[in-house]
């Protein structure tokens, strides 16, 4: 058991010290991290819902406080432990002890029932009970309790020994000493634990006679739904209505709080009149409670929120075997970044050989989440990779507004992706209690095993047990460089499963998300059909940009279409360097971005495209900006017999060139040169106009080359002037 006696002070680090070193992904505490920090919003785990707000009561029943019950559940689980013998402690043995006389009332059964759905092969009930202390305390405004993972659940009831109101000072002191608490720690712990909640008449009718308190529930201080030191200040002020200090308990000698508080002549209680001291001491006492565990249990470092955390990272072998789908989501901690500060999130990945890919993987903003002290934003990705090169790891490149970037590399290790064994979701299914799982295993790898985790009801216990079944998978067909295997499981409803081969695995899959019918995977044709060499991606997402409309951020040409998609806009703007989508249905093109247009938060572009609801097409005054990767910058071509003079204005009183002229929607520089047939000068204007002359007229002067920015109607790689501007030869 982890404990400290009074002769060896129990040392605690501050929360800020715990956050100095970042944990790496994946971690054995990933599930615990989720329920601690994702309390509301996108992907919320809803663990803390039962104690939010602090005044919440189980099932809405008046006269109960769930936060107090969650904290006392942890204490009643830990309290029978023996620190000197290394037996018991916080091990979830309360699951088997809830009907004991020392665990009177419905609070413990109710709390464990609330916790039961969160039990999994990745999260023990003992760790869940510890998380409950953090959530209940923090929801009520109390201190941040550092939480470690790694607790192991008991499989049978333990010893008894929870302190009772009639124990007396000597017995209280002895029992807390057995737990590893000295006298001062005992006093501080009881004061902290009694900052919330009260005493029920139904549980202790001699202490709280029926009808003497609202809802037959006598609170321990005047702020039952706030974690504060009123329990202390009201004690000294003589205004306390705590039934364990005043009332019938005094005559019955069950005024337990008075007995505890006066055990050292009120010395400890006097220090707790300071609110900051009370908060810090409660943090230490509660942390000590949840870290008192049986001998042989090794706890992890305190769990803290990741700066970047991947979710549902999944490879899937596609039909023909030449490509892998790569999908998932990325969570970015935004606590210290500010709302809307993220402009773009991309994955820079390495292939199977360790070579870095030249084109990063773009992401799409999905939503925001928050915890008691942190905020997060989520971004999804979906792409296809060649199966012969695949992926081995990725870093996350975050471009912040107004443009500074940072790379998150998972402690320098990269976020690892293993393509050795791949769970094939489309080919797997579950129907009528039968689970079928298909895996793709790269050639040369040993045959995989299906591992199924099942929750089993336990008689008289509200928390199920977990059992694991391993099933060898059998060979199916070969698809490309992968061998398909399958296995089936029949019996109790599977809670989760995974596929394993040697040191590789694709695990922690949710059985409830499977379809009722399995699909097939098509092998490549025996006679491969020749295909052209794949080109690079035709366009690349640049981020969400400001467009105030005057002028447009992309000011050359635009269109609106109720069937607008990213691809449709890309086609319309194929001759331009940049294109952008706005307000769901608008498409704009240009070769440069307006100087005022700056990178905004990715979440600002939140309108779905009118023609494809899975794509984002900006929003009001926000432009989803893309770069045309196949764009070739326009030039002023060389024309035999002529020298290019530059970009000129029209003359003061008319045209710069006045001999002959022609127009054509298919105009090119070469077409105009041919039309002018040896004239001393020719010039192209406004994309489609051609002018010839023997001299430049007065007032026609050279201008900035940027002014002649329109491409030729017949050749988008050439410049053909602009409004009142000519490219003169």
From TrEMBL:
Organism domain of life: Eukaryota
UniProt keyword annotation of Ubl conjugation present: no
Any GO molecular function: peroxidase activity
Domain Plant heme peroxidase family profile: 123-331
Principal subcellular localisation of the protein: membrane
Matching Pfam families: peroxidase (PF00141), WSC (PF01822)
Secretion signal span: 1-21
Domain WSC: 538-629, 641-729
UniProt keywords, alphabetically: Glycoprotein, Membrane, Oxidoreductase, Peroxidase, Signal, Transmembrane, Transmembrane helix
Membrane-related topology note: Single-pass membrane protein
Cellular component annotations (GO), alphabetically ordered: plasma membrane
UniProt keyword annotation of Transmembrane helix present: yes
Location relative to the cell: Membrane
GO biological process: response to oxidative stress
InterPro entries in UniProt: Haem_peroxidase, Haem_peroxidase_sf, Kremen_rcpt, WSC_carb-bd
Similarity comment: family membership: Belongs to the peroxidase family.
PANTHER family found in the cross-reference section: KREMEN PROTEIN, PROTEIN SLG1
Identification of the protein by name: Heme peroxidase
Phylogenetic lineage: Eukaryota, Fungi, Dikarya, Ascomycota, Pezizomycotina
